[in-house]
Each structure stands twice: as structure tokens, then as C-alpha cells.
Design brief:
Oligomer: single chain
Largest sheet: 8 strands, parallel
Distance between the termini: 22 Å
Number of strands: 14
Number of helices: 12
Shape: globular
CATH topology of the largest domain: Rossmann fold
CATH architecture of the largest domain: 3-Layer(aba) Sandwich
Helix content: 25-40%
Number of domains: 2
Structural class: alpha/beta
């Protein structure tokens, strides 16, 4: 049977999201759609694995083969999804992963979250992470294919909107902040007074800039500074980059490679730590910054546009040059010796079109349908 005249259909495509921040975005997106969309909307989600998500009102369709290779990914986006759209007859097709699919729908919206085309990659970084080099060189072309089919192009920050405008000219771009729901563990972990713990939760990606932390720890060791501990969530043998990091900094005093952490492990480390370190050179948001704010932790973050926008209005923050290890070492030493005076950050909202959260974004996406 065809759909009722009163029923509208939303298709959310997220077949490439299986872990980390992207999976969090998918879960938040589905939960918010269930909560905020009117009852006459039917919600269908194309996902890699039904077991990854659970949301009321949402019909889940597993598409496990779409991310097995880039050729298959594009085949699904531009061929298979068109066939699916003919069956589902969507009023709105919302693609959560960058590429604009070739579908039949009354309206299309694409969510662009991969900032790799806007990063200046060094030769060393390219050698450590060749896949990132490919993203860096070619992703802007994938962004551009069919992009003008979209009613909205959604990005997470104002600096990304400016970058897209420089790349593609005039587009209907909306800045939409992610709705970050931090679930704290009920387990109580006492914050350590000595050593003072600094925490950096990140995967071993070249732009995450772990080396500035390693160099800062080395500077502090040369100064004879003690009474602190830096925890980074990588293991020695995850990839070329992590192997190099461990060979270079694995024996530096007070720097600990604690490996990947589950949610409970991350929560325990936030509670035990005094300070989040976040030297990343490239982010569309920077989820640990929001997490650290929820835990009311001190933050040392790279002095880059994404950092100031994600931090927002927050007193307990200091910015540093992301390649200046001596500056970072100075800040770590001042915190360890209880001498740091933080100036905080004040941020203004982006200009319109802007959505502060999912609750504000959905009405803009379905307006007029």
C-alpha cells in the first residue's frame, strides 16, 4: 500500500557511521527526530548495523556492504539509494555523511562533517596516514558532486561555512551545533591532587597533534618538573603514527600511553583529571571539549577557530599555539604548581541561518513540506 496522504517520510542515511563521534551524531540525530518531528512523519534510517542504534519511531534498515570499499560506497550513494528512494518515496532525504546521494525526494539535505579538504597536510603526516592524504586531496570533489541538489548543506561550525563558501561559492549553508548529551558514570572517582592528571582522549590520527604533548612532556622532564601525569588514549601499535609516537615519546617521564578507553574508562579519567589537553589541529566540533565542560574541568585547547567556537562561553579555559610545545609545557607547569590564571572565553553565535541544536534544526529542514 502507498503511504497515507497525511503521512510524510523522512529517510536518514548514515551507512558509514560505526564508531566514535559520527556514531554519536547518528544516535543523537535519530533520538531528536523521534522526539521533535510531528507524529505524521514516518522515520526510516539506513544504517550499517541495526545493533548500533536504538530509537523509538525509527524503522531501521541495515546496509552492511555500503562501506566495504569506496567504489561500493559511491555505487550505493548514486545507484542503490536511488532505487531505495523510489520505493520509500521520501519527502526529505537527510544524508548524514558528506556525500550528496542521487535520490528521488521532494527535498534533500546533506550533513558535511569531514574537514579534511581544508587541512594543510605535511609530507610526514601523509606518510603516516596515506588514507588521510586521499581525503585531503579528493574529498572536496566528492563534496561537490550533486551538492546543488540540497535544500540545505549542514555544517557544525561557522569556520566550515566560510570554507565551503570559498570552495563552492554561494550555497544554502546552515551552521548547526550538535546536541551533545553527556552521560556521566554514576561511579565516583576522586580527583587526584598529586599527581595532577592531564587527559587527552583521541584516536591516533595525524591531525590530533599528539607530538606537541610529547615535546611538552620532554621539555618538562628536562626542567625537572614532577608532580603531574599526562594520559593519552593510544597504544603503541595501532598504526604508523602511534608506532612513531611511542618510539619517540614512549620513555618520556610522566607521559602514559593508556590505550583506547570505553565509556566507563573515559568517564573515570575525566573524573580523576584536573585538565583536558586538546591540541588537535583539525576538528568540526571537538567532542572532548564539550565533555570536559560537562565535567567542569580546566581546558587547554589549541588556539584555532574550532576551539573557540566549541568552548563557547567558559571561564576555565586557556588557548595555546598548537605547534608551540614550550608554551604548552609552561601552562602544564603553571597548573601543576597552582599558578595558572585563566582568562576564559566569550563567544557569539554564528549569523543566520543557524541552529543551536537538533531541536532548532528540524523545523528549518521540514519547513514548507
Amino acid at each position: 500500500m502507498g503511504k497515507s496522504l497525511k503521512t510524510k517520510v523522512l529517510v536518514i542515511s548514515a551507512v558509514n557511521f560505526t564508531e566514535g563521534g559520527p556514531l554519536t551524531i547518528l544516535r543523537d540525530c535519530l533520538a531528536s527526530a523521534s522526539h521533535y518531528l510531528p507524529s505524521d512523519w514516518k522515520i526510516v534510517a539506513l544504517v550499517h548495523d541495526k545493533g548500533l542504534v536504538n530509537a523509538a519511531r525509527v524503522k531501521l534498515i541495515s546496509v552492511p556492504n555500503a562501506k566495504s570499499s569506496w567504489i561500493k560506497r559511491l555505487y550505493y550513494e548514486w545507484v542503490v539509494f536511488r532505487k531505495i528512494s523510489k520505493k520509500l518515496k521520501p519527502d526529505l532525504w537527510f544524508s548524514l555523511h558528506d556525500i550528496t546521494p542521487r535520490v528521488i525526494s521532494r527535498r534533500q539535505v546533506v550533513y558535511c562533517h569531514n574537514p579534511s579538504p581544508f587541512y594543510k597536510l605535511s609530507l610526514r603526516e601523509a606518510i603516516f596516514e596515506p588514507k588521510f592524504l586521499i581525503f585531503n586531496l579528493f574529498y572536496k570533489y566528492l563534496y561537490g558532486v550533486f551538492i546543488n541538489r540540497n535544500h540545505w548543506v549542514v555544517v557544525q561550525q561557522d569556520w566550515l561555512r566560510d570554507a565551503f563558501k570559498k570552495l563552492f561559492g554561494s550555497l544554502p549553508i546552515i551552521v548547526a551545533y550538535p546536541s551533545v548529551n553527556i552521560t556521566k558514570s554514576s561511579e565516583v572517582v576522586a580527583q587526584s591532587e598529586r599527581p595532577v592528571i592531564f587527559f587527552y582522549p583521541a584516536l591516533p590520527r595525524v591531525f590530533k597533534n599528539f607530538e606537541v604533548i610529547g615535546e611538552a612532556a620532554r621539555v618538562l622532564a628536562e626542567r625537572g618538573v614532577s608532580g603531574f601525569e599526562i594520559r593519552i588514549t593510544i597504544s603503541p601499535n595501532e598504526n604508523r603514527y602511534s608506532k612513531w609516537l611511542y618510539s619517540e615519546y614512549g620513555r618520556v617521564p610522566n607521559l602514559h600511553f593508556i590505550g583506547r578507553q570505553d565509556r566507563l574508562g573515559v568517564s573515570r579519567n575525566y573524573q580523576a583529571a584536573s585538565t583536558l589537553l586538546f591540541p588537535s589541529k583539525l576538528e568540526t566540533w571537538g567532542l572532548p571539549i564539550s565533555e570536559a565542560k560537562a565535567y567542569k574541568k580546566r581546558i587547554l585547547v589549541a588556539d584555532l577557530p574550532y576551539g573557540k567556537e566549541t568552548v563557547g562561553n567558559y571561564q576555565n579555559v586557556t588557548f595555546f599555539e598548537p605547534t608551540n610545545a614550550v608554551m604548552l609545557a609552561d601552562l602544564i607547569q603553571e597548573i601543576t604548581e597552582s599558578k595558572l590564571q585563566q582568562l576564559g572565553n566569550i563567544a557569539s553565535e554564528p549569523s543566520e541561518p543557524f541552529a543551536a541544536n537538533w531541536a532548532n534544526l528540524w523545523p528549518k529542514m521540514i519547513e514548507g513540506l
